[in-house]
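Journal club side-thread
Mid-discussion, someone asked how the predicted structure for our own chain would compare to the paper's figures. Pasting it here so we can look after the session.
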Amino acid sequence: MANSFKKTAVELLAAADVKINGSRPWDIRVFDERFYQRALSQGTLGLGESYMDNWWDAESLDQFFYQVLNAELQKKIKGFPRLWIAVKAVLLNLQRRSKAYKIGEKHYDIGNDLYTLMLDKRMNYSGAYWKDAKNLDQAQEAKLDLICKKLGLKPGMSVLDIGSGWGGFAKYAAEKYNVKVVGITVSKEQVKLAREICNGLPVDIRLQDYRNLEGKFDRIVSIGMIEHVGYKNYRIYMKVVYDCLHEDGLFLLQTIGSNKSEVIGDAWMDKYIFPDGMLPSPAHITKAVEGLFIMEDWHNFGADYDKTLMAWYSNFEKNWDTIKQNKKYDERFYRMWKYYLLSCAGSFRARNIQLWQIVFSRKGIPGGYTHRL
């Protein structure tokens, strides 16, 4: 039986030009023969957990995932854990109001020390815009400025930031465009640090679920947050945004996107990184906004997220000796976090997932939308 699993794995990986115990950076080295059955029977969960257990490795993990995803091997191996998550997603609302703060506790609250050492100086935890940038700081600032220009920000405007993180956008918009910003997040640690970062500016950072939002705003932005909303709540989310936006306002949504409509995310990511997370598809988004918004612009710069993730990984690797001084970050965490960052980089590189900025208006802009650069 073990030899049968190994033979199947060798054949599958060969289709992606990956050799077991080969010499190229994307070839994998197998240290435990149980790896084959675990990966083939449990899909991405087994693949990721066996990596965390040091059953296998690759010199270039990001390139390994590029090879595998570019060859679409994920379509040939699903695994039982993914099926179970899908059943739960259909039967339950995994992102219901009572679970709104789960992602904050499980992911964003794990430690501001980690994120400070991994992210850019403005603490942006979303894909950057690398068109004319030479480093991560420049690319993230370019992304923030791109958003501000697409929204047509003017002094004195009120802006709502849904999923405000550590206040990177709020601080930039308040400083550079003289607007007032209300930011909401479900992470206590993000609120704590964001309030320090935005101290003295017309910025109000709140610990709040989007479903409890009230008031009207000239502009609304949401950067990397709808990935936590769930397909059963997309319409509710868009109705909340619609109700909070002035009639002549603009809404910009930045999100990682899926090439196909699914009801769940990746099984390994769900267990270890983003519980109950899932990526919207174009169909998910258009259905959610139908009858509410006019779509003014749709911009895909997914290839840029590969560069962003590699920059984050470079910072993480460079600062690991400092990070691990906090005893909660052990060797297993190191392998988990490395797997997370580099598998995502490979996925964007293979164009398996995308990064979109979409601009919406309530009634359509007379004469057309002109803020696209």
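Post-session note: Residues 86-92 have pLDDT under 50 and may be disordered.
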